[in-house]
Amino acid sequence: MPRKQPSLLQRAFNVAWYATAGVKRHFQAARRSRLTAGWTQRMTGGDANQVIYRDHETLRQRSREQSINNPYIKRFHRLLKQNVVGPRGIQLQSKAKTPAGEPDKRAQQKIERAWRRFCRKGQFDVTGRYSFVTFLNLWLETLARDGEVMVRMVRGFPNQWGFALQILECDRLDLNYNDLLPNGNRVRMGVEIDDWERPVAYYLLRDHPGDTQQRPPARGRHLRVPASELLHTFESWRPHQARGFTWAHASMLELHHIGEYRLAEMIAAEHGAKLTGFFEQDAEWTEPPDQGDDVEIEEEIEAGTAKILPYGLKFTPYKSDHPATNFAPFIKQGLRGTAAGLGPSYNRLAHDLEGVSFSSLRSGELDERDFYKCVQQFVISELLDFVFEGWLEMAMLSSAVRLPFASLERYLEVQWQPRGWDWVDPAKDAKAATESIANRTKTRSYYIRQAGEDPEEVFEEMAREEEALRKRGLSVSTDPPTESPNEQEDDEERNAA
To answer: Residue ranges per domain, the chain?
Structure first.
């Protein structure tokens, strides 16, 4: 329905109101003056898709170049994989229940065993190249580097589970396909959306546009994939957004200049180390008659020797001041801004622990780990929940997991356990955990989950261990040994000293 145009009187009122409202701006950041002229020129009133469309390809290609040649971007990607995925990946813990609401141990064991087999290399994806962990690493690095990544869930794949995954670069999602379809849906940069802006389908190019061996088009240029089969993941920036952009967008320019500066300083320092000086020739000098036309200059120098230059030549030493004294501070300040734009702390990104105290290191660790925990939950909600649901459905239909399909909803209850971290001072943390458990402010299960382990598996392992100790006649007490009175007196004397 077209919007009603304001009347002439209303337009005149609006002009007068805006004129009086603009006399003095209360928001200093909105002032327009010669000092903010450059800022005003960079402003844009376009929606998120217009802003992304203009710079999408340039951002993506520059981000890929930086991921190859810039050590700090490479470090950023490694930190993500180390701290978000970890060495074992994000572990599945089935929470299947019986119709009475009690934990269904038998179903939980079946689901977890089958999932572990599915996560092996050769089973998890259509190419057979990736295991669950390596697939997650590739997915996360692609997402951070390109800003978006696609995973196609292939149901009916010819394997034991009838299910596999295919990871796709978003180059395949046609950026230049924008259309208004006859059914009323719109296509924005290859994504078909309905009136609610909910993705309906994705228009993929049949081959990667950078592939030199393009296959002849089968039936049209695009392959339309329903949204129920494809997971298109990106980090949202603004509402109405259809595509994503690189996570390094706010840091790439600064990193580029830092890289160019480092390269220039290194080359200048290298030349300064190689070049010792110059031989200057006097233009008015007349060669003595006993000198030959070719004068050889001896440049081989031994310790404790002196040289005589030929007539007419003067040696001028070359003094280089590279690397400059401001080299290290400049690099450090630049990397601090870069780390602020990427997420990890400066100390971790730059491998710089110089001048770091224990308290500041711990404070930085807490903040950085919160960042990784947020990314872990992003991976779970955007990928793992959907993948597990599709896998279990197909595994039960193909009888790879022998459970009644009518109870599928009860078996979909899961908990994902990401990796945990150790502290730099485990003795103090262990003592604090012991006191919290004794005071009943936190549980053993909480601390086990913080370490990235499954409490049920830990408790079962503890029970098996204690049973094995009993069979061998060994003590199963975990209480700390008590000190004798003499030992206590000795400790008090040492403490007093």
So the answer is: 44-249+354-420, 422-476
